[in-house]
Amino acid sequence: xxxxxxxxxxxxxxxxxxxxxxxxxxxxxxxxxxxxxxxxxxxxxxxxxxxxxxxxxxxxxxxxxxxxxxxxxxxxxxxxxxxxxxxxxxxx
Length: 92
Hints:
mainly alpha; 3 helices
């Protein structure tokens, strides 16, 4: 099925199932494409590493969800790359 992806800003192939529990997961399923979700997963890896988050820690999960809402839906202050972040191998 196709969705009007909020990340890519275009119609793209949708996810097969909700990638997150609850209302947020259903919202992602309806509004984020497979490619948009892959972009989020790449950003998530950076956020986890830069902030030294533990995905088993409830406080870390709250922060991750806040970043998810920011990245996918532009809600709140989070979701962008951490200040001063440089990808490995990037020029200074």
